[in-house]
Design goal:
Structural class: alpha/beta
CATH class of the largest domain: Alpha Beta
Distance between the termini: 67 Å
Number of strands: 22
CATH topology of the largest domain: FAD/NAD(P)-binding domain
Radius of gyration: 23 Å
Length: about 450
């Protein structure tokens, strides 16, 4: 038996960041992780491997669609799926080994195995029980199931299976028009698959800014995506390695089906707390399987905390990381805080889509007066030079104070550009503050400045 100040259960982004920061603050820390590698879903079968495939296929798209336009002539490359998979795994291995190095550097003990909490202050890993003054649960989430759909991770897959299909399918049906579905759909569309997205709602990316949704769906359709919206999937039948997706239209009840070589079930994720023993401990849970916590991330049992996907909020790696940092500060006797109003979200398609803060729909519902400044990438010289002039930057500000309330971007490097606005919002900046800040030319970031200018007297290049 070993004794620690903090034991973190889960080695994903929230857990490993929490463990490392606790160690930086002088606490004796252990992290429990049952995978063979650290990094959780994100580094092993989520964010990182999917971005590797998105990167590979983006370059493939550029070769086929844009190289000749730039005077780069020659035979187009073919796809070696096994080599692409090997590249993806190299990226994963490099990142997961990096976390293991950081554990050693910061003297974080890795307790290898699956953890449970037999009682407050104790964590069991395998046959050993360890003591801890405080326990942090960061066990993440798993893909949500869909009634009538049996996942085999071969023909009918979750995001995990979609990363490692035996071969590139000629046709793919994506169930759910959320972030994961559209990203993985982009990967296989670029590889030559016919991609059809079936979504229960009548629009893609439910909850996203309306202008963004309209523009993004138009762009994806132009890229070759097909959409069946307002459709409830009734079931998926698999025969001889082929799938048939049966669905019913919500509006008129009309039934139809689509055949495909592979089906990606991408209908969201749900908290993973199985095996922890929370019910026996008396930890209060919420109706959707999340752990209830107070403003300091503490559960209903003193000394047990929870962060990340297993508590309410956006299921994002960086949200979990922020909570991990905050909990570490709290456990070290400092003030830990997360500003949930400034947590960006990004979709890593081409073009990228990024957002932070309020949408127009949210502000209308609140009855709050606002202004919008919008600038198209068609007016940005750099974007036109790299054939990514689709999309826009949209900044939403308070009508009276000009304070930035939100930002929505479709365009090149949107996932990086959004952080200029995040920093501005964190400091309570106005659109005028952004508009008066010099931006280098030619850069994509000039579009952000132009959108800020559009909140006032008007953009220059529109």
């Amino acid at each position: 038996m070993a004794s620690f100040d903090v034991i973190v259960i889960g080695g994903g982004p929230g857990g490993y960041v929490c463990a490392i920061h606790c160690a930086q603050l002088g606490l004796k820390v252990a992290c429990v992780e049952g995978r063979e590698t650290l990094g959780g879903t994100c580094l092993n079968v989520g964010c990182i491997p999917s971005k590797a495939l998105l990167n590979s296929t983006h370059h493939l798209h550029e070769v086929h669609e844009n190289f000749e336009k730039m005077g780069l002539m020659g035979a187009n490359p073919t796809v070696d799926w096994s080599k692409m998979q090997a590249y993806k795994q190299d990226v994963v291995d490099g990142n997961t080994k990096g976390i293991e190095f950081l554990f050693k550097k910061n003297k974080v003990t890795w307790l290898k195995g699956w953890g449970s909490i037999p009682e407050a202050g104790k964590v069991k890993v395998g046959d050993e029980v360890h003591e801890a003054k405080n326990i942090v649960i960061s066990t993440g989430s798993v893909a949500a199931s869909l009634p009538g759909v049996e996942v085999d991770e071969k023909v009918v897959v979750t995001s995990t299976g979609a990363l490692s299909l035996d071969k590139i399918p000629d046709s793919l049906v994506v169930i759910g028009a959320g972030v994961i579905g559209l990203e993985m759909g982009s990967v296989y569309k670029r590889l030559g698959a016919k991609v059809t997205v079936v979504e229960f709602q009548d629009k893609i990316l439910p909850g996203t800014d309306g202008d963004t949704v309209k523009a993004f769906q138009k762009i994806l359709t132009k890229q070759g995506f097909e959409f069946v919206l307002g459709a409830a999937v009734q079931g998926v039948d698999v025969t001889d390695g082929k799938a048939t997706v049966r669905y019913k239209m919500n509006k008129d009840g009309k039934e139809a089906s689509i055949e495909a070589d592979a089906v990606l079930v991408s209908t969201g994720r749900q908290p993973f707390t199985e095996g922890l023993g929370l019910e026996a401990l008396g930890v209060e849970m919420l109706p959707r399987g999340q752990i209830k916590t107070d403003d300091h991330f503490q559960t209903s049992v003193k000394g047990i905390y929870a962060i990340g996907d297993c508590i309410p909020g956006a299921m994002l790696a960086h949200k979990a990381e922020d909570e991990g940092m905050a909990v570490a500060e709290i456990l070290a006797g400092k003030h830990g805080h997360v500003n949930y109003g400034v947590i960006p979200g990004v979709i890593y398609t081409t073009p990228e889509v990024a957002a932070v803060g309020y949408t127009e729909e949210m502000l209308k519902e609140e009855g709050r007066a606002y202004k919008v400044g919008k600038f198209p990438f068609m007016g940005n010289a750099r974007a036109k030079a790299v054939f990514q002039a689709d999309g826009f930057v949209k900044i939403i500000v308070d009508k009276e104070t000009d304070r930035i309330l939100g930002c929505h971007i479709i365009g090149p490097a949107a996932g990086d550009l959004i952080h200029e606005v995040c920093v501005a919002m964190e400091f309570g900046a106005s659109a005028q503050d952004l508009a008066l800040t010099c931006h280098a030319h030619p850069t994509f970031s000039e579009a952000v400045r132009e959108a800020a200018l559009a909140c006032g007297d008007g953009a220059i290049h529109a």
